[in-house]
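// run 5 | inverse folding | seed 20
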């Protein structure tokens, strides 16, 4: 996978790029909910098939995320741990997505960073 690629489904845009060997950044923007979480899951699976040793989920472009997004993040984290691969979740320091992670306690489980550079 070289260069950016992505798509759009149900209010969710997904950009995927490989800025370095073994590093894949999956960046959804818009609203992530049960109607479109499967599209993000497929993008993550595609990144795994491309042998991403370091998967970065850049969620700074999300304006909404429900519990299906949380489930997807936790599933991806668990699968990364089992495969001995690195995963980071990049989220703005403030905003709805950060608040959802904090209220659910997922910010203490997932490797959350505020800046993309911290994920490399």
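// decoded
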């Amino acid at each position: 996978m070289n260069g950016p690629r992505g798509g759009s489904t149900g209010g969710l845009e997904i950009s995927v790029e490989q800025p370095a060997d073994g590093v894949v950044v999956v960046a959804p923007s818009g609203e992530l909910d049960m109607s479109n979480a499967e599209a993000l899951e497929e993008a993550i699976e595609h990144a795994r098939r491309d042998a991403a040793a370091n998967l970065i989920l850049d969620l700074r472009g999300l304006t909404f995320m429900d519990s299906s997004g949380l489930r997807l993040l936790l599933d991806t984290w668990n699968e990364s741990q089992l495969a001995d691969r690195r995963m980071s979740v990049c989220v703005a320091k403030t905003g709805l997505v950060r608040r959802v992670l904090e209220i659910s306690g997922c910010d203490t489980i997932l490797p959350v960073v505020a800046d993309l550079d911290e994920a490399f």
